[in-house]
Design goal:
Elements: H1 2-14, E1 21-25, E2 30-34, E3 38-42, E4 47-57, E5 60-71, E6 79-84, E7 87-88, E8 90-99, E9 106-115, H2 117-126, E10 128-134, E11 139-143, H3 145-154
Antiparallel strand pairs: 1-2, 2-4, 3-4, 4-5, 5-9, 6-7, 6-10, 8-9, 10-11
Length: 169
Amino acid sequence: MVLRLLIVFLFAACSPSDRNIRTYSDATQVWQTVTRDTEVFRDGKDHISARAIILQKDDTVRYYLSFSVLRGGPNGPRLRSMTHNGTVLDYRKHDRLNAFCIDRCHRAEIGAVTFTQAGFRQAANDGMVIEIDGLRRDYTAIIPARLFWNALSTAGLIAPVKTPVNGFP
């Protein structure tokens, strides 16, 4: 019995944190709010994770959804565009790199979608299904509303967004 309790506590200690990070930089005078990585797509080879980011300086606020696309195949991912309900999103690639080099390296692409305040708040209410057009394959990423809601809440910008229910949206 004691051994089982010990195992449960060890697994609980190793579980990913639901904590969001909010930091302030004296050098840039910017508040940065970042949610934890959330898996939004996975199949036998490829994996996509996303995190919401809010940057605040004085009265200026910027909203982003950062993507990390990890491809298990021989060629790296090359994303061409992202759409939501037929609307092309403002996706910008930041880097292509080798990641998780344990037995072999996987190719990854890191990038972000820029949002307006209204678009970010709408996503916090409804979530999003994003169609990703890639050079080598296409993906459908399901972004839960909670990801956006947690970023707004941590940044102190939650009102007037409704609290999402568990799961999707």
